Amino acid sequence: MPNEALVVIDMQNDFCDGGALAVPGANAVVPLVNRLIARHDNVVLTQDWHPPGHASFASARPDGVPFATVTFPYGPQTLWPDHCVQGTPGAAFHPDLEITKAQMIVRKGFHPSIDSYSAFRENDRMTRTGLDGYLRARGFTRLILCGLALDYCVAWSAIDARQAGFDVAVVLEATAAIDLEGSKKRMLSEMRQAGINLNVTV
Question: Which residue has the higher pLDDT, 14 or 201?
């Protein structure tokens, strides 16, 4: 459909098998994501793109422990293993991902002191990526989301897209979840409450 865009979230090496922040089952969704890409005329990719020593990295704090939650100026923040550092192989897209059709690549998380799960707004909820303006300027009203990780970057992107006024669907079988302390169940519930369609299939 001319008013529909596929947004593929963070299909990068560090989130796939063997990566620094591997999401269980990530490699298995690559063929499904490619199938979705093949079916859509309008494709946007997002890419986590952290500078070395990013504030969300556990290694950036003397007492930092991966997956612990700490308080940042903008609220609670999970500390992560170093991942998707700009220009490294881990930040590159999975080699089997079909990226040729991508019309735009949105890089996020490049501000040194602000993490960014959503493709639309960084974690301070104030700093915008400009993706919503791009999509509106192109005339898109419906977005299909897939990628990694379901309970973080996919869910936050989907909820922000809904709040921005888009009709949003998430293809669950073309995602994989970290599921940190019940995050998968919690974010599925939040997406349903936001009016996001979770029943679309590949």
Answer: 14
pLDDT at 47: 98
User: Measured between alpha carbons, how far is 149 from 162 in angstroms, rounded to an integer?
Assistant: 18
Torsions phi, psi for 158 (to 5 deg):
-65, -45
Which tokens is 154 given? 């996919």
Q: For position 30, what pLDDT does the model report?
A: 98
DSSP class of 93? B
What b/e readout covers 163-184, taking b as 16+ CB neighbours within 10 angstroms?
A: ebebbbbbbbebbbbbbeeebb
| Torsion angles phi and psi, residue 47, rounded to 5 | -145, 115
Tell me which residues are annotated as active site. 10, 108, 153
Whether the bond into 5 is cis, omega within 30 of 0: no
Return d(Cα 44, Cα 102) in angstroms, integer: 5
- How does pLDDT run across 118-171, given as a tens digit for each residue? 999 999 999 999 999 999 999 999 999 999 999 999 999 999 999 999 999 999
The label of the residue with tokens 């500078």 reads: 51
